[in-house]
TrEMBL record:
UniProt-listed Pfam families: ATP-synt_I
PANTHER family, sorted: ATP SYNTHASE PROTEIN I (PTHR40035:SF1)
Keywords tagged on the record: Cell membrane, Membrane, Transmembrane, Transmembrane helix
Regions that span the bilayer: 12-28, 34-53, 74-91, 97-117
InterPro entries xref list: ATP_synth_I, ATP_synth_I_Bacilli
Record's protein name: ATP synthase protein I
UniProt source species: Cytobacillus purgationiresistens
Mode of membrane association: Multi-pass membrane protein
Length: 129
């Protein structure tokens, strides 16, 4: 399982980088509700990413030890997305709904980009040999 932790560390750095850009956008532009929505969605997306890594690690350990596995936390991740939408609908003047939804998808986009970057990097290493 060290690969998943290494990937998570890389992806977490990307997510924090995006969050810092969103905070700068919130502070220095007139699109505050859009950037606040991106911040909310991306923060919960980062939480969901951490949760799936944690549950996957627990799943791997349980399988290796021959124990039963309950769940990978799908309901928890759905509940956090529902929480983001509820907050957005409660405070529509502060949060932009589409930005929150895009923020919630950020971790999946980051995972795909990271996968392609790592695949490209590994391919270049193999060609150099």
């Amino acid at each position: 399982m060290p690969e998943i932790k290494t990937s998570f560390t890389r992806q977490r750095k990307y997510m924090f980088f995006l969050l810092s850009i969103y905070v700068l956008g919130w502070g220095f532009t007139s699109y505050q509700s859009i950037f606040l929505g991106l911040i909310l969605g991306t923060a919960l997306s980062l939480f969901n990413l951490w949760l799936i890594v944690r549950k996957t690690t627990q799943f791997g350990e349980a399988v290796a030890n021959g124990k039963k596995v309950r769940s990978l936390g799908t309901m928890t991740r759905m509940a956090s997305a529902a929480l983001a939408i509820i907050i957005t609908l409660e405070y529509p003047e502060a949060f932009h709904l589409i930005s929150v939804v895009l923020g919630l998808m950020t971790s999946y986009i980051v995972i795909m980009i990271d996968f392609f970057l790592q695949s490209f990097h590994l391919r270049r290493k193999r060609e150099e040999r």
